[in-house]
Amino acid sequence: MATIIHIETSTDVCSVSVSKDGFRLFDRTVPGSVKGSQASEQLGKLVEEAVDAAREKLDAVAVSSGPGSYTGLRIGMSMAKGLAYGSDAKLIAVPTLELLCVPVLLGDHDMADDALLCPMIDARRMEVFTAVYDRALRQVMPGQAMVVEEDSFKELLHEHDIYFFGNGAAKCMETLNHPHAHYIDGITPLAKNMLPLADKRFHEGRFEDVAYFTPEYYKQYEAKLPKNLLKINEQTL
Fold this sequence. Notes:
The chain has 237 residues and is α/β, with parallel strands linked by helices. It has helices spanning 39-54, 70-87, 96-106, 154-159, 195-204, 227-236; strands at 3-8, 13-20, 23-31, 60-64, 90-94, 116-122, 127-133, 139-147, 162-165, 181-184.
């Protein structure tokens, strides 16, 4: 028996959900909210509503652990850690790419038993964060940052139907046009879909260290100067 709050901020969609014993008590999604200086404040309001909806002590806080937006992951993880520490709850990390597979597995898709799932998160240009899973969510290809080219996934596509989805998949359609490549639209990482993954980790005792756990970024963050500062720097050279 567990009451868990779920926090998802890996893309520009912010969502928070609460579950008790595997049943959803609360769910809120705000598109485009993980942007700008007020992102932490917006997430804080959703979390406050979620805690009120729980009406009892939290057993765990589940958070999407990446990859994804550097800013979004950092904000979500900070909120999850603070909540876990303050409520003496366990911290559960749910990989974002695994999370993306949940609505596909639960959806009405006529897949072969050996079909593979390939979630993709946009990482700018032709680069994506991706992994490949079988239908039991066992990794066939480990998570990584990848520049998608014509021969990407060539060997897997030769033997399996692969279903591509997530906000990075659409830009790969022309490049990956193999007859075994299939695309599913409208798949976004959401807190409500974390429930089965978080529940499983809770009952298996798979918890993270609140002090030291960090998101899986998959590549080093590169800070960029605002355009107005770039102009000033150019003028001083």
